[in-house]
Amino acid sequence: MHPAPRAYQIKKTSTRGQLTPSRLTMPALAPHQVLVQVRAASLNYRDLLALHNPADLKEGLIPLSDAAGVISAIGPDVTAWQVGDRVSPCFFPHWDSGPFHASYLQSALGGGQTDGVLSDEIIVSDRALVAIPAYLTLSEAATLPCAAVTAWHALFVRAHLKNGDTVLIQGTGGVAIFALQLAAAQGIRAIVVSSSDQKLERATALGAWKTINYHKEPRWDQAVHRFTDNEGVSCVLELGGPDTFDRSLAAVAGGGTIAQIGVLTGFGPQSNLLPLQFKNATICGICVGSREHFSDLHQFMATHAIRPVIDRTFDFGETPAAYAHLESAQHFGKVVIDMSNDN
Ligand SMILES: NC(=O)c1ccc[n+]([C@@H]2O[C@H](COP(=O)([O-])OP(=O)(O)OC[C@H]3O[C@@H](n4cnc5c(N)ncnc54)[C@H](OP(=O)(O)O)[C@@H]3O)[C@@H](O)[C@H]2O)c1
Fold first, then answer.
1. Ligand 1 pocket member 286 (CB < 6 A)
2. Same domain for 96 and 139?
3. What number is the average pLDDT over the span 236-265?
4. What is the largest CA-CA distance in the chain?
5. Helices and strands per DSSP (H, E), number in the chain
6. What is the pLDDT of residue 28?
7. What is the pLDDT of residue 185?
8. Would the CB of 287 count as within 6 Å of ligand 1?
9. Residues 182, 257: one domain?
10. Do 162 and 234 lie in a common domain?
């Protein structure tokens, strides 16, 4: 008999969440749903936030938003997909294209009240999937739905960057390394800041134009001005939050864009926004992206043969160690969980 699918669920304790292995009972498929055998999943910083601050999560939430797998069954009204198709679910199941609606937020996979993908099987609406390009492995594909879509949305959809522009990228985690790879492929000059010279060497090998160690040079905004004839950068990917926002305001060029994305140093920067006015600059909020953004990203990556950078892969049974590895911030790129074995 087919064993019940494995999963992890977050059990709430008084202080934090606890990753707890479990077995699932899958319901029958609705007419427009598909069943996906998950082969790989990946972690994002968001998943650490959910585990450590579980107050807003439903009890027993299945975590993680990012996965890749193979369709093993389809509902009777599904026409767009077939058994055997390689797919990834979209971070926001209801955001197909066009403008974002606040109501989509609650449906984000692996957060709040909506179960995520850290299980052998997931049920997904036939409208909330993208096909995986043939050149990507399923582990590589599993790194894309949150971090890579976010980088794509920020660089190309909102900041409208093009060949010859400049971008400042904070750190060498998931969003940052995808942003670097996408920018380099498009001929955008990327300046990467990191705590580690070793990681900065790897960033240079991936196409970074300039690098800055933010421990050695905490006023990296000044270095940005040195590198850019005092112009600043066309776009800053703001991943840090309170400890980086003032530097980002100083580093952005006239007419440039700060893409507000991250909370690595906390929530709610209290910066004086006046410099924005005198630069005719823009702040845009980014919350991952739509199914259309995801498809466009896949196409661009395939055209440029971009392969995601996987730092380390853990077995399903090592999921707590995978979280600990992400939390250590030793990684460069993405941390993956391999679901294709029995461990
Ligand atoms: N708004 C959205 O749609 C969206 C989507 C995805 C992610 N995010 C947010 O974006 C941020 C990055 O997410 P992620 O999953 O890519 O994280 P991640 O993989 O865990 O990246 C962590 C890395 O960030 C860097 N970092 C930490 N503090 C820094 C600082 N003060 N200045 C510069 N870099 C710093 C470090 O790189 P080094 O070791 O190189 O220093 C660290 O290794 C998180 O805050 C996450 O919540 C938002």
1. yes
2. yes
3. 97
4. 68
5. 10, 15
6. 97
7. 98
8. yes
9. yes
10. yes
* Atom of ligand 1 minimally distant from the CA of 264: 45
Asked if residue 208 has pLDDT above 70, the reply is: yes
How many A from CA of 85 to the centre of ligand 1?
32
Q: Give the integer Cα–Cα distance in Å for 140 and 123.
A: 21
Q: Which domain holds residue 228?
A: 148-285
Question: What type of residue sits at position 341?
Answer: N
Task: Please give the average per-residue pLDDT across 116-123, as a whole number.
Answer: 98
- Domain of 81, CATH number, reads 3.90.180.10
In a domain, 77, yes or no: yes
Kindly state if the Cβ of 262 falls inside 6 Å of ligand 1.
Answer: yes
Ligand 1 centroid to residue 189 C-alpha, Å:
20
pLDDT exceeding 90 applies to what percent of the chain? 95
Round to whole Å and give the CA distance between 94 and 103: 9
Q: Quick check: CB of 170 below 6 Å from ligand 1?
A: yes
Mean pLDDT, all residues of the chain:
97
3-state secondary structure of 225: helix
Judge whether 299 lies within some domain: no
Asked whether 191 lines ligand 1 (CB < 6 A), one says no
To test the pocket of ligand 1, the residue of 264, 323, 327 to mutate (highest count of ligand atoms within 8 Å of its CB) is 264
Nearest CA to ligand 1 atom 26: 171
Q: Is a pLDDT exceeding 60 seen at residue 343?
A: no
For the cut 70, the answer to whether the pLDDT of residue 274 exceeds it is: yes
| pTM exceeds 0.70, yes or no | yes
- Residue 342: pLDDT over 90: no
Q: What is the pLDDT of residue 303?
A: 98
The angle, 0 to 180 degrees and rounded to 10, between the axes of the packed helices 291-303 and 174-186 is 60
Q: Give the whole-angstrom CA distance, residue 162 versus residue 159.
A: 9
- Which residue out of 42, 43, 45 has the highest number of ligand 1 atoms within 8 Å of its CB and is therefore the one to mutate? 45
Taking the C-alpha atoms of residue 170 and residue 89, their distance in angstroms, rounded to an integer, is: 27
pLDDT at 1: 65
